[in-house]
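Hi Prof. W.,

I finally got the Methionine--tRNA ligase prediction working! I wasn't sure whether to trim anything, so I left the full sequence exactly as given:
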Amino acid sequence: MSAPKRYTITAALPYTNGPIHIGHLAGVYVPADIYARYLRNIGKDVAYICGSDEHGVAIPMRAKKEGVSPQDIIDKYHTIIKKSFLEFGISFDNYSRTSAEIHHKTASEFFTKLYNDGEFIEEVTAQLYDEEANQFLADRFVVGTCPKCGFEESYGDQCENCGTSHNATDLINPKSAITGNVPTIKETKHWFLPLDKHEDFLREWILKGHKKDWKPNVYGQVKSWVDDGLKPRAVTRDLDWGIPVPIEGAEGKVLYVWFDAPIGYISSTKEWAAREGKNWEDYWKKDDTKLVHFIGKDNIVFHCIIFPSMLKAQGDYILPDNVPANEFLNLEGNKLSTSKNWAVWLHEYLEDFPNQQDVLRYTLTANAPESKDNDFTWKDFQAKNNNELVAIFGNFINRVLVLTHKYYEGIIPTPNEFTEIDEDVLAALKDYPAIIGKSIERYRFREASQELMNLARLGNKYLADEEPWKKIKTDEERVKTIMYVALQIAAGLAVVSEPFLPFTSAKLKNMLNIVFCRKEKGLCWSDISTKDILLRAGHQINKSELLFSKIEDKTIDAQLEKLEATKLANEQENKSVEPQKETIEFDDFTKLDIRIGTILEAEKVAKTKKLLKLKVDVGIDTRTIVSGIAESFSPEDIIGQQVSVLVNLAPRKIRGVESQGMILMTDTTDGKLAFVEPEKAVKNGQQVS
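And this is what came out:
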């Protein structure tokens, strides 16, 4: 498309069954926000649209787990998510929710038109059914083995391991996620979108039309789906949570969430357009509008095959010009998991790192999983801040502003004749908006962020080479020119950093005493390339303040400790508890003689890893006991430790040493052993009963 008149940018609707984490940000919301901010900066008409996805099986599942209603869940997480996005600087033009009346109306009308046009097929199919729960098991109410990759915890609609979409009935060894029972098969009526009918259109539109401009990971996944042969896809579900299917004979059924959710982009646009006095149809039905979907790779099939087929069937909607889906972001070497709490949650980050939104934005952009899965580590986060934002960007700005106040009381000096070096630097500055913009327009946000940092490097190198702090002693007139040139670079950074570092950009513009580009006032993106003067001589700048602060090791260690606690909690949760042993009589219990003793001596048993040889005073005598506790305790650390000892256990030779009893132990939450000991010191030989 050449010179679009307007842009509709959508970001995947987040499920309101939990908060937003860094995987969501890196995969969808940060790149989409950079793109939207950039387009606004170059004067484009932009509708950046999103909203909470409040239907689907995940919501009632979370509600059952927490013992509340689905409405409680969506209200709770919609509030958390919306607030987090706002505080993080995600600049949606509209953030709606699919529980809104306008969405229910829009989705129902969309379905009804396709139904009336004969675009659906009606089928009675066999579905998994939980007899105990008395309900059909749609989507994530069932887990089993993926038929493609063998992953044993695949959901009924999609495998999180290999990304394959399938029907619940395709699972091997399926089990109900509600009761754990093996489901039965029961017939039910549903409506299907015949994707096979749209196969030729998809081949022509994507496989031929977008072979060169869509990302290889997106194109490859679509090609694989189409080449495998498309099949009809259900657009309704047997659930009591969602948008009721708006036709007779569909009682107890709702629109499938992946039919309803993308329509949320349209209903959210309607909501925005009504508020802003615009025509929503211009943004969805005009050929001079460019539609771009930002999603994660697990949503490619829905945005590149199912939703376009729905739009095509409607007849008068435009199709996405691009779907620049990212791969997955891992955390400290492990896959992010909402259910296992293995994540960096946005609302918690905003609490732990106040006023440091741009540090996370930059780190996630510089390390974005654009072409392959990538890993977020707290050490890399610290390095990106300390070695790049602080040492390069922040250092340049701080030196320029501090020296300007020191030498000229914050008034930009009048330059003298420019040297060849000055002219080269100013010419290079003019190139950066186009360089950065080209990367953004090609959805190479990581590359664009590094070009931004290269502009800061240009400024640092210029100052380091020219050394105004030295020349001020011998050539004050030359220093005026150096500082003037450096200030032009600072102004350029204030503008082109805005899509990536909006809070930093605003702070820098305030320090330079310039305003955002608004009509004929302020400094605009295009000015950096077209104007010779960005900050005029005589312009008064404001006081300097640090743009970024160094992040210390203790701050990072605290985050790593939080993750370690999560890992231990997960291990304990997944650790199976031994079942109860067979019932014994009271007389059997009374045969056990358990007494309190004190360890007098301890040493390792030669050629073993687990065994310690102990001398224990058990009151009635002092005896030798061999215990497998060497991996949890050092011999020198347990001298004087009171323990519980089964003293009437028959002696047994272990590695050549006769053991005359057994010490009672249990497991701790971190997998180590712990002594079963009295709360207070007691006399050796006291019986435990």
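The radius of gyration is 33 Å. Does that look reasonable to you?

Thanks,
D.
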